[in-house]
Amino acid sequence: MIRESRPKLLGTMLIVLLALSACDRQERSATPGALNGKRIAILSDDGFEQSELIEPRRALDEAGALTVVVAPRAGKIRGWSGSDWGSNVAVDITLGETNPNDYDALLLPGGVMNPDRLRMNPAAVTFVRAFIQARKPIAAICHGPWTLIDADGVRGRTLTSWPSLKADLTNAGATWIDAEVFRDDNLVTSRKPSDIPMFNITMIQAFSGMMPGSTVKNTGTKTK
Fold first, then answer.
1. Number of structural domains found in the chain
2. pLDDT of 174-194, one tens digit each?
3. I want to staple 50 with a disulfide (CB 3.0 to 4.6 A). Which of 44, 81, 157, 222 is the partner?
4. For position 213, which CATH number holds?
């Protein structure tokens, strides 16, 4: 009886070990050092949602990345917090001074004004398109995916966003989904500031090259 049950026991132990290994990989994907050596561009302009730049940037820094705020002009950009202007963030380098080839991944914070300004700026659109064409990881939250439309980066992709972008994204050929976070290969998207914790975890996984595929939480109905 003991011999006959041994294969089953070994099989069960193997399944448990694989599950523990998967959990360990997921945990390590959001721990310090996961992004050591990675340079991350944060493209933004005035009117960015303050929490959607500052909190993801902090998470990237804590994971070991070098984050670089890229903006159309030098100096500082103004954040938006609640119903009024928030804090300023220093610009590290301007679009005219940098090259997308210098970065491993791209973060696009939201805020209504910020991506609307960027999508009207040819240099910003060209910068984003370079990441799309090179298939580098991109994370965009809230209104951030707006700029992806103009950079030809949503057709055939599945993503989420602030709900008011649903029609724009579907008209541009995307599949829109109501989810806390969604990962479509190298593209990570979320809807709003309250999604930031899961957005940060999934963004770091994507930027570090871990756990390819989709990560979905609180998924609603897809619309295409």
1. 1
2. 999 999 999 999 999 999 999
3. 81
4. 3.40.50.880
Residue 19, in any domain of the structure: no
3 lies in a domain? Answer: no
Amino acid at 113: M
Give me the residue label for tokens 């806390």. Answer: 180
The answer to whether 104 touches 40, Cβ cutoff 8 Å, is yes
Pull the structure tokens for residue 10.
Answer: 């070994």
User: Does 157 map to a domain?
Assistant: yes
Q: Which two tokens stand for residue 35?
A: 């992004």
Catalytic residues: 142-143
Query: pTM of this prediction?
Result: 0.82
pLDDT, residue 122, reads 97
Using the predicted structure, report yes or no on whether residue 17 has a pLDDT greater than 50.
no
Contact 138, 115 (CB under 8 A): no
Amino acid found at 214: S
Residue 50 is part of which domain span?
A: 31-223
Euclidean distance between CA atoms 179 and 217, whole angstroms: 6
